[in-house]
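Narrative of activities, Objective 1.

The group set out to show that a structural description can be obtained from nothing but a protein's sequence at a throughput compatible with the screening campaign. Below is one input-output pair from the validation batch, recorded exactly as produced.
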Amino acid sequence: TGIMRRDFARAIAHHDAALKALGRRSALDPSDAEARRNYADQIVMKATAQNMMKDGAGALASTESALTLLRELAAADTKNVEARKDLAFAYGEQAMALTHLGRLDEARRAYKRANEIHEQRLGKDPSSKEDRRDLTRLEFGLGDDLTVHLGQHLLENLGVDPGREGDRTQK
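Output recorded for this entry:
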C-alpha cells in the first residue's frame, strides 16, 4: 500500500518487516524450497521499490541477494517454471538498478538474461500473458532508462548531444 501512494520509506519498512518474518520462517527448515522462494521474492519486491526510488545501490544489493537464492532454486529443480520466472524478474530489477548506477554494460547483460528466460518460457508456452507483459515491461521501461543514461554518457564524456545530429558541445 505504501508504494501505491508513493510513500517509499513506508514501503521499504514493510518489506523489511516481511523479510524479517520470512527469514525466520525460512531458517526453520532450510530445505523448504517454498519458504526460500517466498523470502527471495520478497527481496526482489524490495528491490522493485528501491528502483522506484532510484536507489540503484540498494536495489542492486537486494537483487544480488535474491539472485543467489533464486539461482539455487532454479538449479535444484530445472522443471520449476515459477523459479525461472522469478529469476527473470530479478534479472530485470538488477538491470534497472545497474542502469540507475550508470553501469550500462552490466545492465545490458542482466537485461539479456531476463529476456532470454522470458523467451525460453514463451517458447514452451506461447500463450503466457505474464511473460509477454514482463518482456514488454523490460523493453519499454529499461529501454527508456538505458537511452537516457546513454545520452547522458555521450554528452558528458564525448561532447555529443544525441538529440542533435552532428552536434559537438564545447567542454
